[in-house]
Each structure stands twice: as C-alpha cells, then as structure tokens.
Design a protein that fits this description.
mainly alpha; 10 helices
Amino acid sequence: MTRSERTEGVTLRQAALIVGFAYLLNPVSYAEFTIYPKLVIPGNSYETVANISSHHGLFLAALFCYLINFIEDIIIAWGLYILLAPVNRALALLAAWFQLVYAGIALVGLFNLAMVYRLLTTPEYLTTFGPGPLRAQVNLLLHSFRSDYSLALVLFGIHLLLIGYLIVRSRYIPWWLGVLLVINGLGWVIDSLQPYLYPDADLGFIFITFFGEVVFMLWLLIRGWKIQEPA
C-alpha cells in the first residue's frame, strides 16, 4: 500500500475515475445551452416572464441542473486534490480552494433563480407587486445570477491554471493535458471579465479553449485507470 492510499483512502486511479465521471455526468451544458436560452430572452422581460410562467417545470429543471453542477464541482475539487497532491500538496490544496470558493459563490447566486421560480409560481406575488414591478424584480434576479456566476468563473479559471501547472509538473499525466487546461483557464478568466473590462470586444473565438476540459475528461475515463502511483 502506498503512502497516498494510507493517508487519503483513495488511490490515484480511483480519484482519476471519480473526476472523469463527475465531468461526464455534469448537466450544466444542457441548462446553459438548451434550457436557459429558450426561456430567458435578453432585453425582453415581457417574453422572459411569459416563457418562465408557461414553462416553470423546464425552468426548475435548469435550476436543478445548475445545482447538480455546483455539487459535482465540489466532488471534482476533492478528486483533483487527491490526484495531484503527490506533485505539490500545497498547490493542489490551493487549486481545490479556488474551485470550492467558486462553487460556493455560484451556489449562493443560484438562490436568485430559486426566487424567480417562487415569484412566478406564487399568484399572490403578482397581486402584491403588480405586473411591472414583478417583471423588474425577475429581471434583476436573473441578472444577479449571471453576474455572480460570471465572477465566480474567474476563480474557476484560476483553479484550472493551477491544475494545468500541476499536471505539467507531474510524471504520471501527459504534460500536454496540462497545457490545454492552462489555455482553458485563461479562456474562462478572459471571457468572464469581458462585461467589466472590455464589453465591446468580440471574444467568440474563446469558446474553442473550453474543449480542454473535455479532452481531460476523456483521458481520465479512458486512461485514468492506468495511472501509476508515484514513489
């Protein structure tokens, strides 16, 4: 039994597979690219409120997709810490904390979506606020969620930068995966800061950097079970 097995109770191979499956089973892309854009129409609070009111079950599904995503991010932070602690335990712990803080901020922001659901599924709120103020409240809550999530993704990008560096330094994970994750992390940081620092910049090309996590996930699922325990 290796030292990592004695201290953590989980082998590197097990940690790799846990992280890989947590990535694979993450439903956030369904919420972000399928449900949310159908319901929330930028600049049109009338249509947004009408969509959510008519399809509140779909909106609730998006909310739970985000919730599952942020919970899985906590599991991924734990798994990556175990996987990369043999390289540099202090940096692996710092990377885990960046992801945990990101997940915490995003979870707090998720309460805004929960409040939107409550406002639009409880008839008394329409009577209390009136149509105009209710739409304004919903619009504010939706923007608050996006702002919280966007700023939290800056921390997530820094987490990926640290993870990428640790992978490059490791001897048991291909170095090029680390390079992809560093690029991925820079993409998240640049994209998430756009509304605040360079709102008019065209960053459509940044999307290509996000595939680093997909490649990393596939490697963990296909090759992760062959990782050799370092001395």
